[in-house]
Specification:
CATH class of chain B: Mainly Beta
Structural class of chain A: mainly alpha
Largest interface: A-B, 12 and 15 residues
Number of domains of chain A: 2
Strand order of the largest sheet of chain A: 1-2
Strand order of the largest sheet of chain B: 1-2-3-4-7
Number of strands of chain A: 4
Strand content of chain A: 5-15%
Number of domains of chain B: 1
Distance between the termini of chain A: 103 Å
Number of helices of chain B: 3
Number of strands of chain B: 9
Helix content of chain A: 40-55%
Number of helices of chain A: 5
Oligomer: heterodimer
Helix content of chain B: 10-25%
CATH architecture of the largest domain in chain A: Roll
Shape of chain A: rod-shaped
Strand content of chain B: 25-35%
Order of helices and strands of chain B: EEEHEEEEEHHE
Structural class of chain B: mainly beta
Order of helices and strands of chain A: EEEEHHHHH
CATH superfamily of the largest domain in chain A: Ribosomal protein L24
CATH topology of chain B: Ribosomal Protein L14
CATH topology of the largest domain in chain A: Ribosomal Protein L24e, Chain: T
Largest sheet of chain B: 5 strands, mixed, barrel
């Protein structure tokens, strides 16, 4: 026993129910009842007729939240080495403690001051 | 439900286009798919003497010919043994000769499965699609 589905409303058609309509171009359409058949022959769009399964699926009626939000997209960030430095060097710099960074800065400032003094003396 | 004066499209390549029923052979008032009728050819393809070969051979009828025919599609829904109802978009028939064989050599379009049920095997075998 094969359960057909209605071409218009999407309902299941059990045996001995409904009508089959064969168009001249040999396309077959099954209808669960005269209502669906009438709508179809009036060339109404099932996507706009509220009680059809197509409309309900399109407008997400009757589906619970979790089923709708089943898959969340997660982009994984990959750390990569750049042309100038290796990955270890990048990581080391990032994980430097703030005091260490400050100390390094002071050292750099002192160094540049000395270098300036040296050049001023020479000139 | 084809009765007296009912018009049908002729879907074989016998040359006829429209036929009108003048008698239902089973004695009933109306013919269903798979029933034999007598019909008059109301419109036929013009028989062109200049067409040679297979086309000329196939065009066997002209307007006004009285022929037997077999109804293959009806607009009135018919009941299948499983309780399903099926209907087509038009009324169609194929012409038969005196030996109850199809007059044409090809059938164009879909036909009803009632042909097989009622033992019109030759006609059913010519059909490209049976529903």
């Amino acid at each position: 026993m094969k359960l057909e589905i209605c071409s218009f409303s999407g309902y299941k058609i059990y045996p001995a129910k409904g009508k089959t309509y064969v168009r001249i171009d040999s396309r077959t359409f099954r209808f669960i009842n005269g209502k669906a058949e009438s709508y179809f022959l009036q060339r109404l769009n099932p996507r706009k007729v509220r009680w059809t399964t197509i409309y309900r699926r399109l407008n997400k009626k009757g589906i619970t939240e979790e089923v709708a939000k089943k898959r969340s997209r997660k982009t994984v960030k990959h750390e990569r080495a750049v042309a100038g430095t290796t990955w270890e060097a990048i990581r080391a710099k990032r994980n430097q403690k703030p005091d260490a960074r400050a100390a390094a800065r002071q050292a750099a400032i002192a160094k540049s001051k000395e270098a300036k003094k040296a050049t001023a003396k020479k000139a | 439900m084809i009765g007296l004066k009912g018009t049908l499209n002729v879907i074989d390549n016998s040359g006829a286009i429209v036929a009108e029923c003048i008698r239902v052979m089973s004695g009933a008032r109306f013919a269903r798919a798979g029933d034999e009728i007598v019909c008059v050819v109301k419109r036929a393809r013009p028989i062109n003497p200049s067409i040679a070969g297979t086309q000329a051979a196939a065009q066997k009828v002209k307007k006004g010919d009285v022929k037997h025919a077999l109804v293959v599609r009806t607009k009135k829904e018919m009941r299948r043994p499983d309780g399903r109802y099926i209907r087509f978009d038009d009324n169609a028939c194929i012409l038969l000769n005196a030996k109850k064989e199809p007059l044409g050599t090809r059938v164009l379009g879909v036909v009803a499965a009632e042909l097989r049920q009622k033992n019109w095997m030759k006609a059913a075998s010519l059909a490209p699609r049976i529903v």
